[in-house]
Amino acid sequence: MLSKSYHLFKDYVRSNDAGSDNRAHMREAIGWLYRAQDSSRDGGVSHSYAIGKGWAPSYPETTGYIIPTLFNWAHVTGESEASERALRMADWELGIQNADGSIPGLSTGEPVVFDTGQVLFGFVSAFENTGEEKYLAAAEKAGNWLVKSSDEDHVWRKHGNPGSDNVNLYNVRFAWALLALWKVTGRAEYRETVEGFLKWVLRQEAGRGWFKHNCLNDNARPLLHTIAYTSQGLLECGLMLNDDKCVAAAERTSLELMKHVGGDGRMPGRFDSEWRAAAKWSCVTGMAQTSIVWRRLAERSGGKGFLEASDKVNGFLRKVHDISSSNPGIRGGVKGSFPVNGAYGRYRVLNWAAKFFVDALMLEEHRGFKKPLY
User: Fold this and answer.
1) How many CA atoms lie within 13 A of 354 on its CB side?
2) Using an 8 Å Cβ cutoff, are 124 and 374 in contact?
3) 213 with 168: CB under 8 angstroms?
4) Which residue segment(s) compose the domain that 270 sits in?
5) Which of 102, 217, 268, 309 would suit a FRET pair with 302, their CA atoms being 20 to 30 Å apart?
6) By the 8 A CB rule, do 288 and 317 touch?
7) Distance between CA atoms of residues 356 and 373, nearest Å
8) Domain total for the chain?
9) What is the CATH number of the domain that holds 262?
10) How far out from the chain centre does Cα 254 lie?
11) Is residue 372 part of a domain?
12) What separation in angstroms does the CA of 153 have from each of 18, 94, 156, 341, 361?
């Protein structure tokens, strides 16, 4: 098996390659997601491929939002395998859902609001694409648990991600899922919970789109990954609710991040409260997420350079995306960091990185794509 230092060397060499076209990269990333699902044999998608170690167990949280990506892939390509696999994922999530509607976290088995909210995307998407009541019933159970788990001011302070602050502002990403459920069911409590949480979120802005309580492990220097979770959640919730304050907040974050796109398309992996780069490595996942937000903003308002920034970042992501490796755990997968020894997902190929990479390229390749990018 090739050493970690070899993969680190290949990262630097590959970053100077020209990259291939979007379709080739999307197809390879989808192929990697298929292999990640097959490796687990339970219907879920492996958390990651650890270089030198192999595949990890299925990850409930991210399998949840991979489901809509596969439905979207089936929509644009006509390939039924993607839909079939998405439904296997949704059925696996049905099987592990707790009786109260929550989803157990990977590390402790205890229910986690963020994980439950991300799986909610999968249940809603499965229902939207099939009309099968079992997925709607599961979605409502999850949504009801999320509503009950929030405090009187609609902020989630219980059942947070292990090791993080007792309140996670990036929960706004799954607040979007509750709104999607509200759209399907018309049940006012889902919308009311989100509206209350958004009021709290907007009060946490320290300035210029930088938010407190917004990281998995370092709130003073949040990851681009969680920054992007928040900006996407604010943008999509704002669009669904016609809330200009939320959209404007997402735009402020996006305008600051655009200043940090390097000449080659790279971005730092962390930022402090003054929007100074706080890491030399890049969070590849967060870059793909940010590209999605920029393109969605460009669709809404045009101008301000959002489209150009998205194109530039996507170009870098293609350059560092390995589509030639003979290792099926690496080929087509997306590493957590660039270079691969960076602090986020160190020496790992992450399933959610592949999901956001496909979403970002899908928006570029199919401009005006109307299906939800949950």
Assistant:
1) 36
2) yes
3) yes
4) 10-365
5) 268
6) yes
7) 9
8) 1
9) 1.50.10.10
10) 16
11) no
12) 50, 30, 9, 41, 38
| pTM for this predicted structure | 0.95
- On whether the CB atoms of residues 223 and 268 are closer than 8 A, the answer is no
Structure tokens at 176: 């979007």
Separation CA 366–CA 312 (nearest Å): 17
Where do we find the tokens 């789109």? 209
Asked if residues 143 and 190 have their Cβ atoms less than 8 Å apart, the reply is yes
The Cα 238–Cα 54 span in angstroms is 40
Q: Does an H or E element contain 188, and which?
A: helix 188-203
Q: Nearest 5°: CA angle at 362, between 302 and 295?
A: 20
- pLDDT by residue (tens digit) across 290-343? 999 999 999 988 778 999 999 999 999 999 999 999 999 999 999 999 999 999
**If residue 50 lies in a helix (H) or strand (E), which one and from where to where?**
strand 48-50
Residue 105's SS3 state is coil
Count of beta carbons in the 10 Å neighbourhood of residue 289: 27
Question: Is 314 a member of any domain?
Answer: yes
Reply yes or no on whether the pLDDT at 19 is more than 50: yes
d(CA 283, CA 6): 20
CB burial class (10 A; 0-12, 13-18, 19+) of residue 373?
buried
Task: Evaluate whether residue 253 is within a structural domain.
Answer: yes
- Which residue in the block uniquely carries the two structure tokens 């930022």? 271
Residue 305: Cβ within 10 Å count: 14
Centre a 10 Å sphere on the Cβ of residue 308 and count the other Cβ atoms it contains: 13
Predicted confidence (pLDDT) per residue in 237-292, tens digit? 999 999 999 999 999 999 999 999 999 999 999 999 999 999 999 999 999 999 99
